[in-house]
Write a structure and sequence with these properties.
single chain, 222 residues, alpha+beta, L-fuculose-1-phosphate Aldolase, 7 helices, 15% strand, globular
Length: 222
C-alpha cells in the first residue's frame, strides 16, 4: 500500500487538477483514499480543492470520527476542522468495495448539466467509456451528505466505476487516486460528447454484442 504522505500528495494534486478543469467550483466536491487498518484520508469540509495542502487532509476511521488533523490549515474561510460532509458516501463505498482505494466526487460541468436535465450519458456509444467505466448509472436525487445518498451511490456502483448523481454531480472510484481521477475525466468527456451529440440527433449505441464484450472486459479487470 502507498504510504500516507504519498497519498496526501496525490490527493492534493488530484484536487488541483479537478479545480483547474472547473470540476470543483468554490468548495464543491471531495476526495478520499484508503489507508491501512480501517483508516481513510479525506478532504476537509469547506476546503477549496485547488488550494489544499497535504497537511490539510484529515484521517478518519470507518465511523467518520477524526483521528488526525484539523483541516484548518487552508487559507481563508475554508477548513472547518470537520471531514467533508459527503464522508458518509465515501465510507459506504469503501465498506461495499474492498478493492476501492480512492474516490473522487466532483461537479464537472457537462456531467452536471446532464444530471440536472436527467439526460443519460452516451456510455454505450463510446468504446473507451465502456472499457474504463463499465456503466454510469444515474442515482435519483437524495439530499447531499445524507447516509441514504451514500448507500444509494454505493449500490449503484455494482454496475460500474462511476455514477451520475441526479441534480448533483458525479462520483468515480478506483484502485488508486490516479485511476479514480482518470475515470472522472473519462466520465466528463463522455458527458461533453453527449451534450454535443444531442443537437445532431439521437445517439447511436454500439451493437449489443460489442457492448456486452466491452463490459465483460471491464468486469474482468475489476
Amino acid at each position: 500500500m502507498v504510504d500516507e504522505w504519498s497519498l496526501r500528495r496525490e490527493l492534493v494534486r488530484a484536487g488541483r487538477e479537478l479545480a483547474h478543469r472547473g470540476m470543483t467550483p468554490g468548495a464543491a466536491g471531495n476526495l478520499s483514499a484508503r489507508l491501512a487498518e480501517g483508516r481513510f484520508l479525506v478532504t476537509p469540509s469547506g476546503g477549496a480543492k485547488g488550494r489544499l495542502r497535504p497537511g490539510d487532509l484529515l484521517v478518519i476511521d470507518a465511523t467518520g470520527a477524526v483521528l488526525e488533523g484539523s483541516g484548518r490549515a487552508v487559507a481563508g474561510p475554508e477548513g472547518t476542522g470537520r471531514p467533508s460532509s459527503e464522508t458518509p458516501m465515501h465510507l459506504a463505498i469503501y465498506a461495499r468495495f474492498p478493492h476501492v482505494a480512492a474516490i473522487v466526487h466532483a461537479h464537472p460541468p457537462a456531467a452536471t448539466a446532464l444530471a440536472i436535465t436527467h439526460h443519460p450519458l452516451a456510455v454505450e456509444a463510446v468504446p473507451e467509456a465502456l472499457f474504463a467505466l463499465g456503466a454510469v448509472p444515474a442515482v435519483p436525487y437524495i439530499s447531499p451528505a445524507s447516509p441514504a445518498l451514500g448507500e444509494a451511490v454505493a449500490r449503484s456502483l455494482d454496475q460500474g466505476d462511476g455514477a451520475l448523481l441526479l441534480n448533483h454531480g458525479a462520483v468515480t472510484i478506483g484502485r488508486s487516486v490516479a485511476e479514480a481521477l482518470s475515470r472522472m475525466e473519462v466520465l466528463e468527456a463522455v458527458a461533453d460528447l453527449t451534450l454535443r451529440a444531442i443537437p445532431a440527433g439521437p445517439v447511436v449505441p454500439l451493437p449489443p454484442a460489442e457492448v456486452a464484450r466491452l463490459r465483460a472486459i471491464w468486469q474482468s479487470r475489476r
